[in-house]
Amino acid sequence: MPASSLTPVFVGLRTGLHVVVVGLTVFVVAQGWSGGSRAAVAAVAVAFLAVYGAGFAAGADQNRSRFVSRIWVAALSVLWIALLWFTPAAAYLAFPLFFLYLAVMPGWRGPFTVALATAFAVVGGGVHGGWSVGGVVGPLVGAAMALLIGAGYRSLLRESAERDRLVSELVATRQELADREREAGAAQERERLAREIHDTLAQGLSSIQMLLQAAERADPAGPGAAQVRLARETTADNLAEARALVRELAPAPLAGTGLVPALRRLAGTQWRRPDLALEVDGDETIDLPMAVQAALLRIAQGAMANVLQHSGATRATVRVERDGGCVRLSVVDDGVGFDPDDVLTGSGRPDSFGLAAARARVEQLGGGLRVSSAPGRGTSVTVELTEIAEIAQGAT
């Protein structure tokens, strides 16, 4: 039984079926008691209930693919036909049996077995009590109702399973989003610390080092020259440690390398797909401030995530160019494309929010983001940052 909010419904339906079977069996025994086969009717009825209960206890009603389930139904059918032989009142037991047939027999076998049982009920009633309209119409109406109720039950079961699947996916997605938010928060804090260390400690040590160098050149043989030299060397060591700490706090792909090598490393690992020809074009010696590298790396990662997840592209190019104080990053693919207006509204595509967020991030750095695309014509995302020196001073 599905472990969902609908479980009480299914439990109630099953309990109702048990009550109907037991009640009708008692009724059949009571009707057959007035005949000449009291002992036979009672014995078969007890056997019928015993087999019925044993099957449910063993879960035979839920194992449609197992041979034992069909053996169970076949045994119940034989016992029911035996009751029908002794008393026409056993025809009433056909109604709950219809539901078992539909539950255990897959596909067309269920309705076929229902039709066969209906014929037995009609013939059994006619042989014992004579043919009548009620004796024919009653089993037919019962079979029709069983088929309709069975179809509704299966539909409800499918909807319950689908709901359980969606709830499981929702819980997994919520957990994934929470994990990503934690990771993003940790990454932002690392970048903030890197900027703070660079703007305060590293810049201060660099200034002290320059002043000590000037003092050492001004009086290389003075009485305090040795102390000045020692102070300069100590400052240089501390500055190197501060810069190493900044590199460690930088985004992982940038650690110990530049933007273009980091992009090429991602292209050979996380972005690698057998059906995508990916090229990273750029000069590995391009020297950019850490804030610019981090921003461009995050934007490239977001754009490539869109390429891999939504574009269906076979070719893509990531290009980094620098012209004086301007740097340009472009991500181009030959995928299915989309309407660029959706990027501004944050609707229409599942990746539109990411592009809009990238635009906001670029604008914070004083640059611009341009999206060129059309359905069936691929996509080009271009980022331009100017006044690199000012960006380095404001948010390294």
Distance between the termini: 59 Å
Order of helices and strands: HHHHHHHHEHEEHHEEH
In order across it, which strands form the biggest sheet? 1-2-3-5-4
Largest sheet: 5 strands, mixed
Q: What is the CATH topology of the domain at 253-396?
A: Heat Shock Protein 90
Rounded mean pLDDT score: 76
What is the global morphology? elongated
Label the CATH architecture of the domain at 253-396: 2-Layer Sandwich
What is the beta-strand fraction?
Answer: 5-15%
Unreliable runs? 347-353, 391-396
CATH class of the domain at 253-396: Alpha Beta
Strand runs, count: 5
* Rg on CA atoms, Å: 39 Å
Tally of individual helices: 12
SSE layout:
Blueprint: H1 7-32, H2 38-57, H3 67-86, H4 94-104, H5 109-129, H6 133-218, H7 225-249, H8 259-268, E1 277-281, H9 290-311, E2 315-323, E3 326-333, H10 341-345, H11 352-364, E4 368-373, E5 379-385, H12 388-394
Parallel strand pairs: 1-2
Antiparallel strand pairs: 2-3, 3-5, 4-5
Helix pairs in contact: 1-2, 2-3, 3-4, 3-5, 4-5, 4-6, 5-6, 6-7, 9-11
Name the descriptors.
396 residues; alpha+beta; Heat Shock Protein 90; elongated; disordered C terminus
How do you describe this structure in short?
This protein has 12 helices and 5 strands.
Write a structural description.
With 396 residues, the protein is of the alpha+beta class. Among the domains are: 125 residues, no CATH class; 144 residues, Heat Shock Protein 90, CATH 3.30.565.10. It has twelve helices and five strands. A five-stranded mixed beta sheet has the order 1-2-3-5-4. A hairpin with a 2-residue loop joins strand 2 and strand 3.
